[in-house]
Amino acid sequence: xxxxxxxxxxxxxxxxxxxxxxxxxxxxxxxxVYVQRAEANxxxxxxxxxxxxxxxxxxxxxxxxxxxxxxRALASTPELRAIAEAPSGHSTQTPPRDAARQLLLSFRTxxxxxxxxxxxxxxxxxxxxxxxxxxxxRLCGNDPFIxxxxxxxxxxxxxxxxxxxxxxxxxxxxxxxxxxxxxxESVAGLLGARLDVAQxxxxxxxxxxxxxxxxxxxxxxNGAIALSPLREQEDAPLRLKISARPAVEAAAGNTGxxxxxxxxxVPVLGAYTFIPALEWGLVVKQNQAEAYASITALLRQLTALxxxxxxxxxxxxxxxxxxxxxxxxxxxxxxxxxxxxxxxIRCAVQRRDELAALAESFDHMTDSLRSVxxxxxxxxxxxGSLVAxxxxxxxxxxxxxxxxxxxxxxxxxxxxxxxxSESLFAPAASIGLAADR
Length: 437
Description:
The chain is of the alpha+beta class. Helices cover 50% and strands 18% of the residues. It contains eleven helices and twelve strands. Strands 1, 2, 3, 4, 5 and 6 form a six-stranded antiparallel sheet that branches. A hairpin with a 5-residue loop joins strand 8 and strand 9. Helix 2 packs antiparallel against helix 3. The radius of gyration is 54 Å and the shape is rod-shaped. The chain starts with 9 loop residues before the first helix and ends in a 6-residue tail after the last strand. The mean pLDDT is 81.
């Protein structure tokens, strides 16, 4: 570690390790918060699309049930029951046929989602009554969905197709007219309806509430052919084969939600399912950029917060590094002055920690060194006096002067024992005192 990180000063080392100790945990916290919040937002986006997908599925199923209810209500009317109950060959008589035609015209007027109603003979498949007179006499029994309706004795829907003008997308629906006896042989006729898909079904798909600016829902056939207008391609029905994975999965009969690209090649989040009653696939999708907009905003916020925290950490590191390094640098300067011979230096560190104790010890050390140096100078002076003196009075004066200077005294006196007495001392030299004292 010491080889990897080399610093020119203790301040830089303190700043570096402070930043490491604060930024790394902060970065880890930011990453953890982002991952957790991003996953929660992602799950919320998925749940929203799945909810819309399930809602659209129920609406389409309700649309189908409404069509089944309309045709069953018509089939149970006396006018159509009279045709169903009539013996074979008598259902084309004028009075019952006119009454039935009038009923179908009235029902079509009240329900504009239907472009045509007609009644066909079950045996021949020929249209007997229609709200469009030019259609009467046309054969329709060979259509597969009609055969399905006759076999199942229930409502059957044909595949969407474009009308003769190529503009409108329509569908055919058929419901058998049964005699009272029941059984397979009781099918007397067929009640059919031509649906205007644009008026009846498309409003469900074009309602994009809760899907933002880029969301849309679409239906595809079991061959992944678009059956509804697209946000950016309104003429797509029955003309565009979609190879995007959500549409392919829906057409294959699967249910789920995935991240992928749509028919435009744009990354989307797509929820898909299959509607068995219609053999259609339903896709509800939204651009990932919009679906995950909250995640992108969260990333921006956390990035800004992280940069601010790093800047704040750097600022605090500089302040703390300087505060911690200042007494050390002061000690270093003091050591340098002591090395040059200045023993009067004091650290004067105003702290109450280990650095203050170290500064105080340094001051005691310089005091001790100065005392030792003073004693050494005094000893040297005394030694010099002993060498320089030629007689006892001269020695006394030199010795006293050296002692006064080394001790910093203002006055001093040196007494020697008198020659003629064992207990008396006579002044030999004095500084700052009278000679007789």
